[in-house]
Amino acid sequence: MTRTLVTGTGGFIGHHLVARLKRNGHWVRGADLRTPEYEPSAADEFVEADRRGSAKCLEVTAGVDEIYALAADMGGMGFISANHARILHNNALINIHTLAATVFRNRAQ
Angle CA(54)–CA(96)–CA(33) in degrees, nearest 5? Predict the structure, then answer.
């Protein structure tokens, strides 16, 4: 059974990707900044984690075979238009730490 991580599980695409992976027989760990608001995640395991820091990225990537990195700092248009630099900074941290954790994980295997 493929062990898969989906970050951004609380979002629209992440939520549907988890459901699809489960239908295809994957074991899924979901991760997001907070628990899904409107419907519980179908993930086998859900980790509430802020992946702007490297320690949480190492935690959520442990023991998985595949990673779908969908996490992003975002909000409504008012927030987005007023916070370009903050959003870019946070999304860069999320992606860089997730990638670094993946590289570290692969080297350790």
Answer: 60
